[in-house]
Write a structure and sequence with these properties.
The structure is a homodimer of 205-residue chains. Chain A has 205 residues and is mainly alpha-helical. Chain A has 2 domains: 48 residues, Homeodomain-like (Arc Repressor Mutant, subunit A), CATH 1.10.10; 126 residues, Orthogonal Bundle (Tetracycline Repressor, domain 2). In chain A, helix 6 packs antiparallel against helix 10 and helix 8 crosses helix 9. At the A-B interface, helix 7, helix 8, helix 9 and helix 10 of A face helix 7, helix 8, helix 9 and helix 10 of B.
Chain lengths: 205, 205
Amino acid sequence: MARSTREAILTAAAELMRVKGYAAVGMKDIVAGSGAPIGSLYHHFPRGKVQIAGEALVNAGRAYALLIPTLVNPHTDLGEAVESVFAQAAQDMAATGFANMCPVGTVAVEIADTVEELRVASAGVMAEWLEAGEAYFASRGVADARDLTATLIATLEGAFVLARTLRDTEPLLAAGRVLGPRYRGIPLLPSPAGVSLPAPVGTAR
Amino acid sequence: MARSTREAILTAAAELMRVKGYAAVGMKDIVAGSGAPIGSLYHHFPRGKVQIAGEALVNAGRAYALLIPTLVNPHTDLGEAVESVFAQAAQDMAATGFANMCPVGTVAVEIADTVEELRVASAGVMAEWLEAGEAYFASRGVADARDLTATLIATLEGAFVLARTLRDTEPLLAAGRVLGPRYRGIPLLPSPAGVSLPAPVGTAR
């Protein structure tokens, strides 16, 4: 029971931060969202909101480490793969009414200069994204695996900001049209045996 | 005098949001930052914080509409220009200790699902960025001026998020290395006569 209460608290906190950012979420909101009493929040997280938020960001962020590999995996041409990543992201954004899918980038920019503990937690998540993407692209024979991963993550994060604000998929589709041709004609090696990717994040929501 | 009080309020609000986001900034912070009494804030902005924030975002965002044109202007090769935009951004970020330069993207993601008035204000600013960049690149003979502009803005915004969080310029430099070669060898027409660009934003801080 203790474990599921803990998870309910973290899930509620991630969901609240996804919609409202960090500062606008109070402990009372997490009580309401999780169904756990306030005493239980402090029992599991003695340092309160900052501790809950840090663990919630790490949990939520980890689910996204395999997003790019999962979307790229069916492809054999790197340019087609890159363009399809942005096309899929655009489709998902439009289908959800331009919802924020992941609180990590959102909270990271909000607190980067004010809540060092959360900046460090967010940096850890982003470093894992970079490492996972680099390892995946390297395994498929991409020469600039690290640069490509950093660019894809940066461009997706920024295009999400523009698309959510404009309520328009244009920035995502434009990025796919610009970045796809950069890699068109570069073949991807077959996925290494033993690499098993989880179902796309979207299906587990 | 009334005009300068108004400007002091907007400047203080933009500066506070740049560092702390939207929700964490209170009217008391704007009083302290601007030196204007609380009555003066409500005299100039009867609807309070949301009205101040909306006007401050528009002011701060407008100063950035010419950032990309200004950085691109000295160049005659589009690929070199694109790479230099990211190199300059990386240099500026490192020189400022990874400060947030512009509150628009930061506040936009924080409030996109919760404060519709500010989402609309942010969307207006971003639409102006897209139009200014598109008009500039078109004037220099770039065929995909709109897609290039949307991609540059998205990638810069996202790379800023990663770089500020990681305290590392890698995402900006990686994006330059990926996007530069996409446009290498594409000549830029001379800047049209009569286009006068302001000094780079950095010099006016």
